[in-house]
Amino acid sequence: MQPFNIVEKPAFQEMLQTFDKQYELPKKTFISQTAIPSLYNQVKDKVLKELKDISFYSATTDMWSSSNMTPYMSLTVHYITDDWTLQSKCLETRFIPDNHTANILAENLQSAQSLADWALEESKLACITTDNGANIVAAIRQLGWPWLNCFGHNLHLAVSHGLDSDKDRTARAMGVCRNLVNTFNLSWLKKRDLRKAQTEANLPQHSLILDVATRWGTKQKMIERVLEQLPAIRRVLVEDRKHGHLNPTWQDVSVLESINAAMKPVADFTDVLSAEKHVTVSSVKPVLELLKGELLSPSPDDTELTENIKSNMCRVLAQKYSPPNIQLLLTKATVLDPRYRGSMEDAEVLDDVRQQLVQELLDMKEQ
Q: pLDDT tens for residues 162-198?
């Protein structure tokens, strides 16, 4: 993707002239003031026709920053069509120059461009999903909208708190790992020497992975890759006086192995409940039960650190989904999903939820 002013670049103009000497290149003002607005209106009319026929919808919203740190808020709605197809439409990405207070966020979410301009009634909003940021949660509460926190963000928080177990040791080991990867990734010579050492040690020709702060799964991938390539890494560093200090100690390796043992069982769940083509909310409770009952349960081979990390992760996840309104929402979704049908619920709870669902259906019929 290129900016509009590419049409003014001599090289771009020369390239198009080579393709077709008779082609008249439009001005950037035509693209920004005519072509793009026209395309936007066409797409908006099409989306409006779809939205006017839906009975209910859910939404997701997030604050994010561009590469030059410009803050934006995006709002996406999700709904099911008459032919039972799950659709997702990003209605808006808005520049938010003001302080991101709860009041400012609430005003922007409720503004004409966000919902009313798309003929969406707040009464038809089944739920909105956000991260756990205090201001966005307060904004949703201020609006009185049904709310569910993001599973991926909850998992990220659980892992972060899990690493608080013996924080001095885990922070040091993670720092050693990160510095090591950075050094290799920023040096062509180090990468060359690593490939040679991998061949000599009969190891896979894998590159080292640097973690990304906002994606917890990359921490586990970084650690796992360093542990996999440790023999080759040591071969390179033992001949490098300048960077020899980066060689992990046996204590660091032991901590990294303990962290990896706790994280690896849940690594596949980073994006498992992130989807736009199928419903995922009904799988939250089953996944939580799987994590608690199997993947994060103590194992005879666990070190004390691994066991503590698992325990902390379970505790945080349980806290995030403990509010009664969230529990009720997840239970309803699980009961309605033919794969589960509330199989993990107590008989009394299951009967009560079924009665509530029947009453909701009757109320919908009368409307």
A: 888 888 999 999 999 999 999 999 999 999 999 999 9
Is pLDDT above 90 for 347?
Answer: no
Q: Is the pLDDT of residue 332 over 60?
A: yes
Q: How many domains does the chain have?
A: 3
Q: 13, 34, 66: which is closest to 5 by C-alpha?
A: 13
Q: Are 95 and 102 in contact (CB under 8 A)?
A: no
For β-strands 147-149 and 71-80, DSSP reports them as unpaired
161 and 268 co-located in one domain: yes
How many CB atoms sit inside 10 A of residue 281's CB? 20
Query: Do residues 175 and 245 make contact, with C-beta atoms less than 8 angstroms apart?
Result: no
Q: What string of H, E and C letters represents the secondary structure of 261-287?
A: HHHHHHHHHCCCCCCCCCCCHHHHHHH
Percent of the chain with pLDDT strictly greater than 70 = 99
Q: How high is the pLDDT of residue 274?
A: 77
Residue 275 and residue 297 in one domain: yes
Q: Which two tokens stand for residue 21?
A: 């000497």
Domain of residue 347, residue span: 323-367
**Hey, CA dihedral for 69, 177, 259, 217, is it positive or negative?**
positive
Across 250-267, average pLDDT: 93
Last residue of a domain, one of 129, 149, 169: 149
Shared domain for 87 and 233, answered yes or no, is no
Co-location of 163 and 300 in the same domain: yes
Task: Give the residue-averaged pLDDT of 89-103.
Answer: 91
Alpha-carbon distance of 208 to 184, in angstroms, equals 8
